[in-house]
Amino acid sequence: MKAVIKSMIANLHAAPDSASELIDEGLYGMVVEIVEQRHDWFFVKTPYRYEGYCKASDLILDTENAIEWQEGANHCISQGFADVLQEPKIQSAKITTLVRGSIIRVLPKEGLGEEWTIIQLATGGVGFTRKQWIKEKVDRNELTEDNFRDRVVQTALSYLTTPYRWGGKSPLGIDCSGLCSMAYMLNGVVIYRDAKMIDGFPIKEIEMEQIQKGDLLYFPGHIAMYIGDDLYVHSSLGGNEVSINSLNKSHFHYRDDLATTITAVGSLFPAK
């Protein structure tokens, strides 16, 4: 069975208990696979093979609808937060608020001008949001390597100062692997949502000397994105937010605890 997440953010827990560890977040419109049910909790598997317990109230349990939604919902929220309104005007009542990465369907509608667009929600309802706050899902195959590297870095940097949240992956709070996986996902590539490389995902190990912007730095229990000039962006538990640090000892933002403990470098692209 498949289901669609209908909450702005659906918490995925390690156990069917709200007090258990938060291991991931499912964002609005994401389709998940139902593995099993335990009372009012469902054990679900995400498209990137992460698993956790989600409350039934966060899901639309309808496989046919989920498949149709997965095929037809080709846009996502690009703004940190976007209100969905009942009418195309700022004074209108709010239907819901969605965060960056939420999946929606854009409906054709003439006469709205350049500011507004009409969208369909996973529940079937419709609402209005600003055109500049949404974008079509990215097809990685339509991007050159240089373009992809630029885009994935800019996406990661758009989360700067976002508070650190264990298991988080939204502008409300995000962890290290959440930051890197969302930056890649918003640019059409699904990577493993953890601080390691595993088989079946496109990130492969390269030598440190081959690193380029957009590649990933791995540390014990931590991951960061290299952005060039010896700098990297990451969501650090020690720093409490998404920030930039340096691998250069003479740089003001050098962190010895990370620069000296790099275990691997990963890239989407073959080493040159």
TrEMBL record:
InterPro entries: NLP_P60_dom, Papain-like_cys_pep_sf, Peptidase_C40, SH3-like_bac-type. The keyword Ion transport does not apply. GO terms for biological process: proteolysis. Keywords: Hydrolase, Protease, Thiol protease. Residues 146-266 form the NlpC/P60 domain. Belongs to the peptidase C40 family. It comes from Ureibacillus sinduriensis BLB-1 = JCM 15800. This is Peptidase. It holds the Pfam family NLPC_P60. SUPFAM superfamilies: Cysteine proteinases.
